[in-house]
Every structure is written in C-alpha cells, then in structure tokens.
Amino acid sequence: MPRAASSEVAAAVADAHRREWGFVLAATVRVAGDIDAAEEAVQDAYASALSTWSVNGIPRNPGAWLTVTARRRALDMRRRAATAQRALPKLLEPEGYRDDSPDAGDIPDDRLRLIFTCCHPALALEAQVALTLRLLCGLSTADVAHAFLVPEATMAARITRAKKKIAAAGIPYRVPPASELHERVDGVLSVVYLVYTTGHTAPSGVGLMRRDLAERGLELARTLRALLPADPDVAGLLALILLTEARRDARLDEHQEQVLLAHQDRSKWDRQAIAEGVALLRVALVSRPPGRFALMAAIAAVHDESGTWSETDWQEILVLYDLLMERWPSPVVQLNRAIALGFAAGYAEGLAELDALGAEPQLARYPYLAAARADFLSRLGRLEEARVAFQEALILTDNDAERRSLRTRMGELAN
C-alpha cells in the first residue's frame, strides 16, 4: 500500500474519531446492551476502518460506515454471549417500549439519551460529567482528568465505578419522563459546558481549539433549549456558549497563533451571536437567585459589550464573580475572581489573592494560576519573578499553541 494512501486513511480515521465518536457510541449502546461492550464494538469498528478503508477507499459517510460496523459487531457479541439468550440487556429498551418524555421525537440523535443515562441521579455529579466526557466525546482518560484537575489514575477508577453502577442498577438508556427531567438537568448542563470548554481550549495537542467539540457543545445546548424552553439554567448555558463562541474568529492570528483577549480585533467578533446571547441572558436572569451559567454569561457579556480592553468594567465583573462564588464556589472561580480584582483594584491586590491560592491542592498543577501570576508580576515590574512564573506555566501546559504564546510573552519581558 502506498505510504500516501496509508497516511490519508489514518487521517480520515482520526478525523472520524474526533467528529463521530459520540454519534457512533450512542447508537451502538442501543444494541450492545452494555456500555463496556459498546465501547469495545466501537473500538473494533475504528480498527477495522484502518484496514478496510485502505483496500476499499474512504467511504462517503465515515460516521454511517462506523455506526453500521460497530452495531454489527455488538450484535455478534450478543449472539455469542449466553446471557443474551436469557434476558434483554439492561440498557436496551424492552419490546413495546415507548418514550413518553416531552418532545422525544425532536431529539436528533442518540447523544442526549446517552447523556441522560450517564447523568442519572444514582451517580455522583462528578462521575456523571466524567463518564459522559469519556463516552460521548471519546476524550482520553488523561484529558478528562485534566478537566477535573485530578490524577489520571483517580479518574480511571471513577469512570470504571460509574459504568459498573449503571450496569448494576439497570439504568435505562432513554430521555427521562417530564417528572424526572429537572433532577438531572444540572448534571447534563455541566456535561455540555465541559464538552464546549474542552473544545474551546483543548487540554493538549497542536491546535488551540478542538472545533468539533466546541460545535458539538453548542449544538447540544441548542437541543436542550428546545427540550426545556422554560428552564432559565438552560438559557443561561446557551447564552454563555454563544457569548464565548462570538470571539472565536479573533482568538488566532494569520499565523494561527493565540491572541489574548486584551489584544483581539473586536471587529472580528460575531455581533449576531452576541445579540442572541444577551437576549438569552435576560431570560436566564429572571431566575432568583441567578444560576451559575447565567452569572458566567453575564461576565462574558461585559467583555463582549466593551468597545476596547481599556473600557472593560472590571468592577462589575468583580461583583459578578462575588455572586458566582456564593452560587458556585470553586478554586477556579476564586482564581478568576483574583484576576478581576487585579484589574479592578490594582495588580498588587490581585497578585496577593493569587499567591494565597498557591496552597489550593486542586490548583497545584493548573497552568492558568502560574500564567496569571506571571502577568501581574510583569505588570508590576518584577520581571525575574515573572520569568520564573512563566516557566512554571510552560511546564504545566500541554497545549502547543498556549505554550508558544507563553514563550512569546516570556520573551517580551527582556524588551
């Protein structure tokens, strides 16, 4: 086989993994009857694609080919399993099953069914989010661990326990009825938010973004909005994603290098997305107290509606972070509040808050803490300390685009 053809097939399989994994796995679960079995069948399908596509050519619709292949593999596995002859699989809907949940016919594919399965209240919230990121998005366990700021081994054990609990509890693979929807919404929103943010800035890899995940997060948020149009938290999440996504085209320069918010060309921001996001934000803020996604969307709106970086209302952003700390306290929110404090009250005040966070275990390997310290140190003229902080951020950062940006900023300290 020519080397060029082999490279082309490998690239096509890799692209299909990024774009289609969630579709293929969610469709395969319906016939596999078990999450582990479905994962094995899907992995076999991708392995088969490498050899089959090299001989027969890359199919016009790789996702459909992979889905058919994975489902056939899952059916073969069931036929060989003696238990398949005695009982229906736990996740497979029984014969005659009818989904009575509202707007069930409007769900465009099986992905939301998989999310709602993983976000069953029998699972801890962190397990819900981690499991769905692993299954729906095909993220490696290492990337999921990075998103949660925990060791990879801890995350692997958490995901394994969650899958076993789904199987043992016989949790059904479906969108729940209306009476159960709202108790699962918070977990589902957390999942969709992390899908989007993982695509907005990839934890690792060459590019700054993973557009497939960001687009998937936006699409799922819109689907949830259609499913639950009266839920202010859903409106808040969609507002947040739109207001963040509006700045997408300004985040890279012509050389595909990262451009920080302070230096972005705001004429490239998507004004239509900003208008839609602000309108949704008004809906989300009707709820009292406002939800965490509404508050984060309000912070994004302050940035989006500022004509220049210097016109940013940091006092308002600081107040919003104070509210967010009451609603959703976390080390990362504390970090972002400290940055806002630095721009609102002075770099020394912000740096003191950042230094206090250095003892927080969850932030011990979080590169944005070191990068924020480096920025404030450089603004205060403490260049040698800033250089050390930039070096720490470089050690902790796995995304190549962010590493290049850090090196550039560190190089500017000498000028």
Shape: globular
Distance, first to last CA: 53 Å
- Give the number of helices: 18
The ordered string of helix (H) and strand (E) elements is HHHHHHHHEHHHHHHHHHEH
CA-atom Rg in angstroms: 23 Å
- How much helix is in the residues? 55-70%
Largest sheet: 2 strands, parallel
Helices and strands: which structural class?
mainly alpha
- Spatial strand order of the main sheet: 1-2
Total DSSP E strands: 2
Low-confidence stretches: 1-5, 84-109
- Proportion of residues in β-strands: under 5%
Overall average residue pLDDT = 85
What does this structure look like?
It contains 18 helices and two strands. With 415 residues, the protein is mostly helical. A two-stranded parallel sheet has the order 1-2. The chain is globular and about 70 Å long. It starts with a helix and ends with a helix.
Q: Brief description of this entry?
A:
The chain is mainly α and 415 residues long. The protein has helices at residues 3-32, 35-56, 62-80, 111-118, 125-137, 141-148, 152-169, 178-200, 211-227, 232-245, 271-284, 292-304, 314-327, 331-345, 347-356, 367-379, 383-396, 400-411; strands at 204-205, 398-399. A two-stranded parallel sheet has the order 1-2.
For this entry, give a set of tags.
415 residues; disordered N terminus; 18 helices; two-stranded parallel sheet; mainly alpha
Show the helix and strand layout.
Elements: H1 3-32, H2 35-56, H3 62-80, H4 111-118, H5 125-137, H6 141-148, H7 152-169, H8 178-200, E1 204-205, H9 211-227, H10 232-245, H11 271-284, H12 292-304, H13 314-327, H14 331-345, H15 347-356, H16 367-379, H17 383-396, E2 398-399, H18 400-411
Parallel strand pairs: 1-2
Helix pairs in contact: 1-2, 1-3, 2-3, 4-5, 5-6, 5-7, 5-8, 6-7, 8-9, 8-10, 9-10, 10-11, 10-12, 11-12, 12-13, 13-14, 14-15, 15-16, 16-17, 17-18
